[in-house]
Write a structure and sequence with these properties.
six-stranded mixed beta sheet; 296 residues; alpha/beta; binds fe (iii) ion; binds benzoic acid; five-stranded mixed beta sheet
Length: 296
């Protein structure tokens, strides 16, 4: 599987898109070198069978010398590559199915308020429409998952995340909650509509993207971890299917099945989205990867 995996259309396409190959603009030589570098790194991931936790340990180390490293690994497609690799290993082990995983990104914060019921995520005023999301968390057979915790986080209408907002205007856990679900596996929350994220203008990631003839923007999206006893923890997100960047996410986090169209009515929008988890098979399946995360 290993040598063949690097040759798959999904991987080769990711390497091309990440390096800006075939796009107008940017520096042709830099694109060629970047493509070879990404290919070398991803080949090493496969050759050494590097797991998620090992990968993030390495990124954490390098980030101590380069503050935007977490953005660069996403923009260069390495974070999405890990998802493709884990998907391929699941398929080989006969473990496909369920809601697709996709990238976590670097903007999760540990310790968000743990709440129950029909929840409001937004503490701060924001001149934006209201997003309503509802749905269920079920297991592989469609059975409601009991005692799940849904971690939700998203940006505000300016595309800034609390804790990482350079304007300093957001209260600490604005648009971040952990929602404890009941026996029926149903969830329901509302919040101020997020806008898409863009990398800091003039920063290292922005400059590299421009030099590759690319951009550093993501469509509007909502992140989730879904954890429950007996089930594999899912890292995923929904991206708004009607966002101009829905088909051109700089971080490659948009995936088939994760692009719902918000039902927009006046100043409200509704998204119905159901999560389907897989059973845990290994002890680590129920926990998050050992990625270093910000804690408040
Ligand atoms: C995000 O999900 O917001 C994100 C992902 C990768 C890099 C930067 C931001
Ligand atoms: Fe995000």
């Amino acid at each position: 599987m290993r040598a063949d995996f690097m040759k798959t259309a999904a991987v080769q396409d990711l390497l091309d898109r990440a390096a800006g190959t075939g796009r107008d603009g940017g520096d042709g030589r830099l694109k060629a070198i970047t493509r070879d570098l990404i290919e070398a790194v991803t080949t090493t991931i496969v050759k050494q069978d590097i797991n998620e936790s090992e990968f993030w340990q390495g990124v954490h180390f390098l980030q101590q010398g380069a503050g935007e490293f977490g953005l660069l690994v996403a923009g260069l497609g390495l974070e999405h590559f890990l998802d493709l690799y884990m998907d391929a290993k699941d398929a080989e082990a006969g473990l496909g199915g369920g809601t697709p995983r996709t990238i976590e990104g670097p903007l999760y914060v540990e310790g968000a308020p743990l709440v129950e019921g029909d929840v409001n995520l937004s503490d701060d005023p924001d001149d934006a429409d209201t997003l309503y999301m509802t749905g269920t968390v079920t297991g592989p057979g469609g059975e409601p998952v009991r005692n799940a915790i849904l971690h939700v986080w998203h940006a505000n209408s300016k595309g800034w995340y609390s804790h990482f907002d350079p304007t300093g205007e957001q209260t600490p856990f604005n648009n971040r909650r952990r929602i404890r679900l009941g026996d029926d596996g149903r969830y329901s929350f509302h919040s101020k509509m997020p806008s898409g994220y863009s990398v800091p203008p003039g920063g290292a990631t922005d400059r590299l993207m421009k030099a590759l003839g690319r951009h550093g923007s993501r469509p509007a999206h909502v992140h989730f971890f879904v954890e429950a006893p007996g089930y594999r923890t899912l890292t995923t997100q929904i991206n708004f299917g009607d966002d101009p960047f829905a088909a051109d996410d700089f971080a490659f986090g948009t995936r088939e099945g994760l692009l719902p169209l918000p039902d927009r009515q006046g100043d409200c929008a509704h998204i119905a989205f159901d999560f389907r988890l897989q059973h845990a098979r290994l002890p680590n399946d129920e926990t998050l990867s050992a990625r270093a995360r910000t804690s408040a």
